[in-house]
Design goal:
The chain is built from eight helices and seven strands, in the order βαβαβαβαβαβαααβ. The chain is of the alpha/beta class. It folds into two domains: 10-190 and 232-256, 3-Layer(aba) Sandwich (Rossmann fold), CATH 3.40.50.720; 193-229. A seven-stranded parallel beta sheet has the order 3-2-1-4-5-6-7, sandwiched between helices. α2 links the parallel β2 (34-39) and β3. α4 (108-135) packs parallel to α5 (157-177). The longest helix is centred in the middle third of the chain and has 28 residues, at 108-135.
Amino acid sequence: MSFCDLDQSVAVVTGGSSGIGLACVEQFLAAGAAVAFCGRDPARLAQTEALLRQRFPAARLLARACDVLDREAVNAFAAETEAELGPASILVNNAGQGRVSTFADTSDEDWLDELRLKFLSVIHPTRGFLPQLERRAPAAIVCVNSLLALQPEPHMVATSAARAGVLNLVRSLATEFAPRGVRVNGILIGLVDSGQWRRRFAEREDPTQDWDQWSAALAARKQIPLGRLGLPQEAAQAVFFLASPLSSYTTGSHLDISGGLSRHAR
Protein backbone atom coordinates (compact mmCIF):
# COMPACT_ATOMS: atom_id res chain seq x y z
CA MET A 1 0.00 0.00 0.00
CA SER A 2 1.37 3.42 -0.96
CA PHE A 3 1.36 6.34 1.45
CA CYS A 4 -0.73 8.27 -1.14
CA ASP A 5 -3.49 6.59 -3.12
CA LEU A 6 -3.76 7.53 -6.79
CA ASP A 7 -6.60 5.21 -7.78
CA GLN A 8 -8.29 7.98 -9.79
CA SER A 9 -5.10 8.92 -11.65
CA VAL A 10 -3.60 7.98 -14.99
CA ALA A 11 0.19 8.23 -15.00
CA VAL A 12 2.41 8.20 -18.09
CA VAL A 13 6.10 7.34 -17.90
CA THR A 14 8.47 7.62 -20.85
CA GLY A 15 11.50 5.34 -20.83
CA GLY A 16 9.59 3.14 -18.43
CA SER A 17 10.95 -0.32 -19.23
CA SER A 18 14.06 -0.14 -17.01
CA GLY A 19 15.91 1.85 -14.37
CA ILE A 20 14.31 4.92 -12.84
CA GLY A 21 11.46 4.82 -15.34
CA LEU A 22 10.50 1.29 -14.37
CA ALA A 23 10.78 2.15 -10.67
CA CYS A 24 8.34 5.04 -11.31
CA VAL A 25 5.90 2.70 -13.06
CA GLU A 26 6.03 0.34 -10.07
CA GLN A 27 5.54 3.21 -7.62
CA PHE A 28 2.44 4.47 -9.44
CA LEU A 29 0.95 1.00 -9.82
CA ALA A 30 1.47 0.35 -6.10
CA ALA A 31 -0.48 3.55 -5.40
CA GLY A 32 -3.41 2.32 -7.51
CA ALA A 33 -2.90 4.51 -10.59
CA ALA A 34 -3.50 3.32 -14.13
CA VAL A 35 -0.16 3.53 -15.92
CA ALA A 36 0.95 3.89 -19.53
CA PHE A 37 4.64 3.57 -20.27
CA CYS A 38 6.79 3.42 -23.35
CA GLY A 39 10.29 2.45 -24.44
CA ARG A 40 12.24 2.02 -27.63
CA ASP A 41 13.09 -1.70 -27.32
CA PRO A 42 9.99 -3.82 -28.07
CA ALA A 43 11.53 -7.01 -26.63
CA ARG A 44 12.52 -5.42 -23.33
CA LEU A 45 9.17 -3.62 -23.19
CA ALA A 46 7.26 -6.89 -23.59
CA GLN A 47 9.38 -8.59 -20.93
CA THR A 48 8.84 -5.70 -18.51
CA GLU A 49 5.09 -5.66 -19.16
CA ALA A 50 4.84 -9.40 -18.47
CA LEU A 51 6.67 -9.04 -15.15
CA LEU A 52 4.51 -6.08 -14.11
CA ARG A 53 1.30 -7.93 -14.92
CA GLN A 54 2.48 -10.81 -12.76
CA ARG A 55 3.22 -8.49 -9.87
CA PHE A 56 0.12 -6.29 -10.34
CA PRO A 57 -2.51 -8.63 -11.84
CA ALA A 58 -5.38 -6.17 -11.35
CA ALA A 59 -3.51 -3.17 -12.73
CA ARG A 60 -4.72 -1.06 -15.62
CA LEU A 61 -1.53 -1.02 -17.66
CA LEU A 62 -0.56 0.00 -21.18
CA ALA A 63 2.92 -0.61 -22.63
CA ARG A 64 3.85 0.62 -26.09
CA ALA A 65 7.04 0.86 -28.13
CA CYS A 66 7.65 4.54 -28.84
CA ASP A 67 10.63 6.74 -29.63
CA VAL A 68 10.03 10.06 -27.88
CA LEU A 69 12.01 11.82 -30.62
CA ASP A 70 9.31 10.80 -33.10
CA ARG A 71 6.57 13.41 -32.67
CA GLU A 72 3.90 11.44 -34.52
CA ALA A 73 4.66 8.28 -32.54
CA VAL A 74 4.34 10.21 -29.28
CA ASN A 75 1.04 11.72 -30.39
CA ALA A 76 -0.25 8.25 -31.28
CA PHE A 77 0.86 6.97 -27.85
CA ALA A 78 -0.99 9.86 -26.20
CA ALA A 79 -4.16 9.13 -28.14
CA GLU A 80 -4.02 5.42 -27.32
CA THR A 81 -3.41 6.15 -23.64
CA GLU A 82 -6.54 8.27 -23.46
CA ALA A 83 -8.59 5.71 -25.38
CA GLU A 84 -7.46 2.79 -23.20
CA LEU A 85 -7.05 4.34 -19.75
CA GLY A 86 -8.59 7.80 -19.87
CA PRO A 87 -6.88 11.21 -19.94
CA ALA A 88 -3.51 11.42 -18.22
CA SER A 89 -3.15 13.40 -15.01
CA ILE A 90 0.58 12.70 -14.49
CA LEU A 91 3.42 12.77 -17.01
CA VAL A 92 6.96 11.70 -16.18
CA ASN A 93 9.54 12.72 -18.78
CA ASN A 94 12.41 10.32 -18.21
CA ALA A 95 15.20 11.24 -20.65
CA GLY A 96 18.00 8.91 -21.74
CA GLN A 97 21.62 8.41 -20.82
CA GLY A 98 24.44 10.93 -20.94
CA ARG A 99 27.14 11.39 -23.55
CA VAL A 100 30.76 11.10 -22.38
CA SER A 101 32.78 13.70 -24.29
CA THR A 102 34.88 16.82 -23.84
CA PHE A 103 34.58 20.00 -25.86
CA ALA A 104 37.58 18.93 -27.97
CA ASP A 105 36.02 15.65 -29.09
CA THR A 106 32.36 16.68 -29.39
CA SER A 107 31.45 17.26 -33.03
CA ASP A 108 28.69 19.53 -34.27
CA GLU A 109 26.61 16.44 -34.99
CA ASP A 110 27.18 15.17 -31.45
CA TRP A 111 26.06 18.52 -30.02
CA LEU A 112 22.91 18.49 -32.12
CA ASP A 113 22.13 14.88 -31.22
CA GLU A 114 22.50 15.53 -27.50
CA LEU A 115 20.50 18.77 -27.51
CA ARG A 116 17.81 17.16 -29.62
CA LEU A 117 17.54 14.18 -27.27
CA LYS A 118 17.40 16.13 -24.04
CA PHE A 119 14.97 18.81 -25.26
CA LEU A 120 12.65 16.89 -27.55
CA SER A 121 12.31 14.02 -25.07
CA VAL A 122 10.59 16.61 -22.86
CA ILE A 123 8.94 18.73 -25.54
CA HIS A 124 7.24 15.98 -27.56
CA PRO A 125 5.54 14.16 -24.64
CA THR A 126 4.60 17.45 -22.99
CA ARG A 127 2.95 18.70 -26.18
CA GLY A 128 1.29 15.34 -26.81
CA PHE A 129 -0.22 14.94 -23.34
CA LEU A 130 -0.80 18.57 -22.31
CA PRO A 131 -4.43 18.73 -23.52
CA GLN A 132 -5.23 15.68 -21.37
CA LEU A 133 -3.39 17.09 -18.37
CA GLU A 134 -5.30 20.35 -18.63
CA ARG A 135 -8.62 18.47 -18.68
CA ARG A 136 -7.58 16.52 -15.58
CA ALA A 137 -6.24 19.55 -13.67
CA PRO A 138 -4.85 19.67 -11.09
CA ALA A 139 -2.20 17.66 -12.93
CA ALA A 140 1.57 17.28 -12.82
CA ILE A 141 4.60 16.91 -15.05
CA VAL A 142 7.88 15.66 -13.59
CA CYS A 143 11.15 15.69 -15.53
CA VAL A 144 14.01 13.37 -14.58
CA ASN A 145 17.10 15.56 -14.87
CA SER A 146 20.68 15.36 -13.65
CA LEU A 147 22.84 17.21 -11.13
CA LEU A 148 24.99 18.00 -14.18
CA ALA A 149 22.52 20.81 -14.84
CA LEU A 150 24.03 22.70 -11.88
CA GLN A 151 27.37 20.95 -11.44
CA PRO A 152 28.80 20.24 -14.90
CA GLU A 153 31.56 17.72 -15.56
CA PRO A 154 34.23 18.52 -18.19
CA HIS A 155 34.06 14.97 -19.57
CA MET A 156 30.30 15.37 -20.15
CA VAL A 157 30.24 18.83 -21.65
CA ALA A 158 27.36 18.35 -24.09
CA THR A 159 25.14 16.53 -21.61
CA SER A 160 25.87 19.08 -18.87
CA ALA A 161 24.90 21.97 -21.14
CA ALA A 162 21.75 20.22 -22.34
CA ARG A 163 20.72 19.32 -18.79
CA ALA A 164 21.09 22.97 -17.76
CA GLY A 165 18.78 23.90 -20.60
CA VAL A 166 16.16 21.42 -19.39
CA LEU A 167 16.40 22.90 -15.89
CA ASN A 168 15.52 26.28 -17.38
CA LEU A 169 12.78 24.76 -19.53
CA VAL A 170 11.09 23.22 -16.49
CA ARG A 171 10.99 26.60 -14.79
CA SER A 172 9.55 28.27 -17.89
CA LEU A 173 6.88 25.61 -18.36
CA ALA A 174 5.93 25.81 -14.68
CA THR A 175 5.18 29.52 -15.02
CA GLU A 176 3.28 29.10 -18.29
CA PHE A 177 1.22 26.08 -17.21
CA ALA A 178 0.36 27.16 -13.65
CA PRO A 179 -2.80 29.06 -14.69
CA ARG A 180 -3.95 25.91 -16.47
CA GLY A 181 -3.66 23.79 -13.32
CA VAL A 182 -0.57 21.85 -14.39
CA ARG A 183 2.45 21.81 -12.08
CA VAL A 184 5.92 21.20 -13.56
CA ASN A 185 8.88 20.06 -11.48
CA GLY A 186 12.00 17.95 -11.82
CA ILE A 187 14.56 15.91 -9.95
CA LEU A 188 18.35 16.23 -10.21
CA ILE A 189 19.93 12.82 -9.86
CA GLY A 190 23.54 12.11 -9.03
CA LEU A 191 25.03 8.65 -9.47
CA VAL A 192 22.21 6.11 -9.51
CA ASP A 193 22.54 2.36 -9.99
CA SER A 194 21.76 1.77 -13.66
CA GLY A 195 22.58 -0.39 -16.64
CA GLN A 196 25.31 2.07 -17.55
CA TRP A 197 27.09 1.62 -14.19
CA ARG A 198 26.48 -2.13 -14.23
CA ARG A 199 28.24 -2.34 -17.61
CA ARG A 200 31.21 -0.45 -16.20
CA PHE A 201 31.21 -2.81 -13.23
CA ALA A 202 31.34 -5.79 -15.63
CA GLU A 203 34.48 -4.28 -17.17
CA ARG A 204 36.18 -3.57 -13.81
CA GLU A 205 39.93 -4.06 -13.49
CA ASP A 206 39.67 -6.18 -10.33
CA PRO A 207 37.27 -9.10 -10.94
CA THR A 208 37.42 -10.08 -7.26
CA GLN A 209 35.43 -6.96 -6.29
CA ASP A 210 31.69 -7.48 -5.87
CA TRP A 211 29.16 -4.78 -6.72
CA ASP A 212 28.98 -3.37 -3.21
CA GLN A 213 32.76 -3.04 -2.97
CA TRP A 214 33.13 -1.58 -6.45
CA SER A 215 30.27 0.92 -6.11
CA ALA A 216 31.46 2.00 -2.63
CA ALA A 217 34.92 2.69 -4.08
CA LEU A 218 33.30 4.67 -6.90
CA ALA A 219 31.28 6.70 -4.39
CA ALA A 220 34.47 7.43 -2.44
CA ARG A 221 36.26 8.63 -5.58
CA LYS A 222 33.30 10.84 -6.46
CA GLN A 223 33.17 12.13 -2.85
CA ILE A 224 29.54 11.23 -2.30
CA PRO A 225 28.89 11.93 1.41
CA LEU A 226 26.39 9.07 1.81
CA GLY A 227 29.06 6.70 0.53
CA ARG A 228 27.03 4.82 -2.08
CA LEU A 229 25.15 5.10 -5.33
CA GLY A 230 21.46 5.88 -5.27
CA LEU A 231 18.79 3.32 -6.03
CA PRO A 232 16.26 3.75 -8.86
CA GLN A 233 13.51 3.40 -6.25
CA GLU A 234 14.87 6.39 -4.33
CA ALA A 235 14.65 8.57 -7.42
CA ALA A 236 11.18 7.20 -8.13
CA GLN A 237 9.99 8.13 -4.65
CA ALA A 238 11.00 11.73 -5.31
CA VAL A 239 9.19 11.65 -8.66
CA PHE A 240 6.11 10.24 -6.92
CA PHE A 241 6.15 13.06 -4.37
CA LEU A 242 6.30 15.73 -7.07
CA ALA A 243 3.63 14.01 -9.17
CA SER A 244 1.16 13.50 -6.33
CA PRO A 245 -1.03 15.82 -4.23
CA LEU A 246 1.66 15.57 -1.54
CA SER A 247 3.41 18.44 -3.37
CA SER A 248 0.29 20.36 -4.41
CA TYR A 249 1.88 23.76 -3.67
CA THR A 250 5.17 23.04 -5.45
CA THR A 251 5.96 24.00 -9.04
CA GLY A 252 9.05 25.13 -10.92
CA SER A 253 11.29 23.29 -8.45
CA HIS A 254 13.90 20.54 -8.56
CA LEU A 255 14.63 18.00 -5.83
CA ASP A 256 18.28 17.04 -5.33
CA ILE A 257 18.64 13.24 -5.31
CA SER A 258 22.42 12.95 -5.22
CA GLY A 259 23.41 11.59 -1.82
CA GLY A 260 25.01 14.91 -0.94
CA LEU A 261 27.14 15.09 -4.11
CA SER A 262 25.76 18.57 -4.85
CA ARG A 263 28.07 21.36 -3.73
CA HIS A 264 25.34 23.99 -3.99
CA ALA A 265 23.53 25.52 -1.02
CA ARG A 266 20.01 26.36 -2.25
